[in-house]
Write a structure and sequence with these properties.
The protein has 597 residues and is an all-alpha fold. Helices cover 73% and strands 0% of the residues. The protein contains 26 helices and no strands. It starts with a helix and ends with a helix. The relative contact order is 0.17. Pfam families: CstA. InterPro entries: CstA, CstA_N. It is a multi-pass membrane protein. Keywords: Cell membrane, Membrane, Transmembrane, Transmembrane helix, Transport. It comes from Peribacillus castrilensis.
Length: 597
């Protein structure tokens, strides 16, 4: 099996799915009607509600949903072999993720762009709305811990990478200040991107210097620095750090993955992994559980992700110019993200299994696997750092991409630069998701606790902003400091997929109200049934075998309590939905259609 075959086959499947199933969802199930004004037109204010060109909206939505998940999840799930990951990505994205993103976006637009918790309150009642809001708060903070864990292990004892990533903070702030003062976006872009590239080129020179020693940081130190950074990113004005970092990282993301696709077609690397590994029944060094349910928990973004509901009921529904844009922006962007995830999977499984497991396991655990490394010592020497035991997925992706790039003629001597560029690309893009997510968490905290103390609801109240930002950073910072990638990513996966289940529950309710044929509800119920069972089995397994097991390395009462709480919230929402569906089913279909018109 070679990589080009997988890439071409996958893209063909996704294009056919978009053309056929995407059209069916848009025209038959959701009945998108461009004769009706979208919220962007009805509530246009020049700030939040702005009618936006379809492709600009697509770019915004894709950049917002495609963070670390499609990069890291497939890397970690490669433990099970290439076939389970590939099948779940393709089936999950078409049947689950694209439908989820489209129906959530549609449900929010029907309610003038309101958040999913507000939509749940109106569709399912106040109890379901409260539980959805609480679940969103839990999930966004856990997401931040999971994403930060990836950056943690990428930058651990890596002064070149830490310097390259750290310098992007003042560069982004400089770009923000320059653009605000002059309005010259082109000049700010050229200077900002040029300075970032210069930082990568200067990186090797700091190794062995006082600055290099200062930036050689342990994971425990980075686990404190990241939440502190996120606090300032969440509290500072958005134009000063958040927006320019987002903007600059988008250029890197497009460039890196375009280069990877070209590299795969030029090199056409052989897939070194078997279809299934010995760990499909559990006991793996990266993910302890069996291939099911953990393949669907480890790979969220790229297949189906509840995190997308934050975007699909946040900024995007306030931007769409026409209802039919839901097909390309909601359904289509998810399929493009699936391509990104498949490319990440190829980068991982193009490595020798021994090299892969040596990177993603601690040295002590790797010794028990009975494997030998093949090219790892050579790669470590070429790149300039010890690659063993750098868990988290980010380093594996960088090594896999470097391995592919250096097979291209004339690039064979540039391994260290390719590696550090990919590390910086991953870290900058993930940090963008972290600071954006922390800001979202701040809003959720202010909104949720503002019900008990009204001044907190005011986003312009400085003490409230500081309190909410600090609380958000403390919660996910504690999870980051006390966890490991196996337990944290599993906690993130369970919570994220539970959020996707909630999105499908709300989507199914809306479809039942507006569809011409009631069986169309199965477009939501089929992925919902699979995902809800999967997330509960995985949650129960993790609570029993890891979080509340004193003999487990991932023993954590807090993680156990969080998991149990989220599963209970999901059950309450599902019960409320079943009650609502029963009520709606008793109403004649003609009457339902009349009410929804």
């Amino acid at each position: 099996m070679n990589a080009v075959t997988i890439v071409i086959g996958s893209i063909c499947i996704l294009m056919i799915a978009y053309r056929l199933y995407g059209t069916f969802i848009a025209l038959k199930v959701l009945k998108l009607d461009d004769s009706k004004p979208t919220p962007a037109h009805k509530l246009e204010d020049g700030k939040d509600y702005v009618p936006t060109n379809k492709w600009v909206a697509f770019g915004h939505h894709f950049a917002a949903i495609a963070a670390a998940g499609p990069l890291v999840g497939p890397i970690l799930a490669a433990q099970f072999g290439y076939l389970p990951s590939l099948l779940w990505l393709l089936i999950g994205a078409v049947i689950g993720g694209a439908v989820h993103d489209a129906v959530v976006l549609f449900a929010s637009m029907r309610k003038d762009g309101k958040s999913l918790s507000e939509v749940a309150k109106e569709e399912l009642g106040p109890v379901a709305g409260f539980c959805t809001g609480l679940a969103m708060l839990f999930i966004i903070t856990i997401t931040m811990a999971g994403l930060s864990m990836v950056v943690l292990h990428a930058l651990e004892n890596n002064p070149w990478g830490t310097f390259a990533v750290g310098i992007t903070i003042p560069i982004a702030m400089g770009v923000g200040l320059y653009h605000k003062k002059t309005g010259n976006l082109k000049g700010a872009t050229i200077v900002g991107f040029g300075l970032i590239m210069a930082a990568i080129l200067l990186g090797p020179n700091i190794q062995g210097t006082a600055l290099g020693d200062l930036l050689t940081l342990e994971a425990s130190t980075l686990a404190i620095i990241l939440p502190i950074y996120a606090f300032f990113a969440a509290a500072l004005p958005v134009w000063l750090l958040l927006a320019p970092r987002d903007y600059l990282s988008t250029f890197m993301k497009i460039g890196v993955f375009a280069a990877l696709i070209i590299g795969v077609f030029v090199v056409n690397p052989e897939i070194q992994f078997p279809a299934f590994t010995e760990f499909i029944n559990g006991g793996g060094p990266i993910v302890a559980g069996p291939v099911w349910p953990f393949i669907s928990i480890t790979i969220a973004c790229g297949a189906i992700s509840g995190f997308h509901a934050f975007v699909g009921s946040g900024t995007t529904p306030k931007m769409l110019n026409r209802w039919s844009d839901i097909k390309s922006v909601g359904f289509g962007a998810m399929l493009v993200e699936c391509v990104v995830a498949i490319m990440a999977l190829i980068a991982a499984v193009s490595l020798q299994p021994g090299d892969y497991f040596a990177i993603n396991s601690t040295p002590e655990v790797f010794q028990t696997l009975g494997m030998e490394t093949v090219h790892l010592d050579e790669l470590s020497e070429e790149i300039g750092i010890n690659l063993e035991g750098r868990t988290g997925g980010a380093v594996t992706l960088a090594v896999g991409m470097t391995y592919i790039f250096t097979e291209i003629p004339f690039f064979d001597k540039l391994a260290s630069f390719f590696f550090q560029f990919v590390i910086m690309f991953e870290a900058v893009f993930i940090l963008t998701a972290i600071d954006s997510g922390t800001r979202v968490a701040r809003y959720l905290i202010q909104d949720f606790f503002g019900e008990f103390y009204k001044p907190l609801k005011r986003v312009d109240w400085l003490p409230g902003n500081i309190f909410a930002s600090a609380l958000a950073c403390f919660i996910w910072g504690y999870l980051l400091y006390s966890g490991d990638i196996g337990s944290i990513w599993a906690l993130f996966g369970v919570s994220n997929q539970l959020m996707a289940s909630i999105g499908l529950i709300i989507g199914a309710t809306v479809v039942l109200k507006i569809a011409d044929k009631r069986w169309y509800i199965w477009t939501c119920l089929v992925p919902l049934a699979y995902l809800y069972v999967t997330v509960n089995v995985a949650g129960y397994w993790m609570v029993k075998n890891v979080y509340l097991n004193p003999d487990s390395a991932g023993f954590s009462i807090l993680n156990g309590i969080l998991s149990i709480t989220m599963l209970i919230l999901g059950l309450i929402i599902l019960v409320a939905a079943l009650k609502k569906w029963r009520e709606l089913w008793k109403i004649p279909q003609a009457e339902l259609l009349k009410r929804s018109a």
